[in-house]
Amino acid sequence: MDLTILSVKGIIILVIFGVTLLIAMYSTYAERKVAAFLQDRLGPNRAGPWGLLQPVADAGKMFFKEDFIPAQASKWLFILGPCLAILTALMSSAVIPFGDSIRFAWDGVKYDVNVQAIEINIGVLYIFGVVSLGVYGIMVGGWASNNKFSLLGAIRAASQNISYEIALGLSLIAILMMTGSLSLRSIVNEQATFFEWNVFTQPLGFIIFLTCSFAECNRTPFDLPECETELIGGYHTEYSSMKLGFYLFSEYINMFVSSAFISALYFGGFHYPFMDLVSSGLEGSLGAVAGHNVATAIGVVAFFAKIFFFIFFFMWVRWTLPRFRYDQLMNLGWKTFIPLSILNVVITGAGLLYDFKYATWLIATVMIVLAVVSTARAPKRQVRPQTTTA
Amino acid sequence: MQLTNRSVQVSNKEMTLAEKMYLPAVISGLGITIRHFFRKKPTIQYPEVKRYLGPIYRGLHILKRDEQGRERCTACGLCAVACPAEAISMIAAERQPDEKMLYREEKYAAVYEVNMLRCIFCGLCEEACPKQAIYLRHDRMVPVFQERDEVIYGKDRLVEKMDDRYVRVASSEVQATPTEPSLTRAAT
């Protein structure tokens, strides 16, 4: 790889890194704003216009807090916990294809550089590996705190992440079977036309994947590892100052990365309807090189629009649904999602045999019909009369 | 005993398949919250926007003058007696012949002090006053103080300014009774 590509890649990596941090930072602001609006409030609006400086103020506050390490804590592991959490969170955005490619000429050589930090042919595996490392940050931190609430939170996080990772992976297998590749870029390029977006070919897989990614991000309704009402703060009970900041921040980075992952896997990544028309029109009017670059920029904007929608969706769900009980969480993961995703794989495989992509709609239709029938046949409200003991 | 008709007996029927799938309920829940997202917010932006607290709000104390600009207070001390927090103190003095334009009665308060740290804004002084001299104004609050020597309000800050007369109710929103003294006498 020559120096020009290397430096352009370096710039792209830096930009992705910066954008990830910026989005994570403003996700905290957006979360508070969305929460407020969903609850008929206004949210933070004092720091700067519309409260836009609120994340800066929050970060400043975090830095000036006392950085406390409990006497009984295992000191190095206590420090290692948040480092691991934020490191793995930041690493996973490396393989996400943010856009098509940038074309330019330098020293008479024509270059075509992908808007992506690294293009590896096992991108999906990479993300899975890094995400499953992410739970170590929580486990190590929760264990090192030497506090029963932290330990409970860490145990919950570990078991929840392990349970849901299986369904997450299985629901993805169907996509991998259809694409025949583990590279995220080829999965995205497979969805070039609107009705071949995986959300239309894999509706059931999408719902399973979405729910499991909620669980992987420890977001409500699956925020059992840190539920304030039961475990004070869960795994970060003992943390303060910027260590706590890192934990909270890594949660928002994870949310951004999983939004990007969902958009790339199921919503066509940087593709948008009538993309071919737009890009050929631009290349006709602006010239092949400039037109291609502008089309890439529009694709990046479309991708970020999808990501922002999913970040909003994460928050929307958080302020809508109450938390699951732990046995409900485990039942949903093991007894519902894993069998369903295996069924999804089987049906997709059968459909692929006959070259029919939309086979999983069969499961969806059957489920909808069953649900409607069961609702219609269900007995009306039965109220067992309360026996009053006088 | 049933107090309201709002209570609903909890149903314990088996969940149907649609209910076990959670999704229909989740979607309807999302619909409810997104409607709130676009709803008009009832928040009042407090320091910039202040709502009208009504004609009987008890705020900053004021020593009223009558329609000729004479102080009404005769230093009878009933307000100080009525005050449960013992926030009011005064020293009476006799009116000199050349001070007829300043004080309405022959006796007046040479010193009249309200300790704002003690005051509980109960309004008993207002009720006790036979001369309708002291009021807790409905439109102004005691400003925030940082120093202890700002706490005791003397006559310089309590007596009504002639260019800033206080009327209990703005004429557009008269809700008080016609016998309200500030309406009949001081609203000039």
Written description of the protein model:
The complex is a heterodimer of chains A (390) and B (188). With 390 residues, chain A is mainly α. Chain A is built from 14 helices and two strands; from the N terminus they run αααββααααααααααα. In chain A, helix 1 crosses helix 10, helix 3 (75-91) runs antiparallel to helix 4 (123-144) and helix 8 (203-216) runs antiparallel to helix 13 (326-353). Chain A is globular and about 65 Å long. The model of chain A has no long low-confidence stretch (mean pLDDT 85). Chain A has one domain. Chain B is an alpha+beta fold and 188 residues long. Chain B has a domain at 61-186: Alpha-Beta Plaits. Chain B is built from six helices and five strands, in the order H-H-E-H-E-E-H-E-E-H-H. Chain B has a three-stranded antiparallel β-sheet with strand order 2-3-5. The longest helix of chain B is centred in the N-terminal third of the chain and has 15 residues, at 23-37. Chain B is elongated, with a radius of gyration of 27 Å. Chain B starts with 16 loop residues before the first helix and ends with a helix.
Helix content of chain A: 55-70%
Strand content of chain B: 5-15%
The counted number of beta strands of chain B is 5
The name CATH uses for the topology of the domain at 61-186 in chain B is Alpha-Beta Plaits
Unreliable stretches of chain A: none
Radius of gyration of chain B: 27 Å
Unreliable stretches of chain B: 174-188
Question: How many alpha or pi helices of chain A?
Answer: 14
Number of distinct beta strands of chain A: 2
CATH architectural grouping of the domain at 61-186 in chain B:
2-Layer Sandwich
Listing every helix as H and every strand as E from the N terminus to the C terminus, the arrangement of chain A reads: HHHEEHHHHHHHHHHH
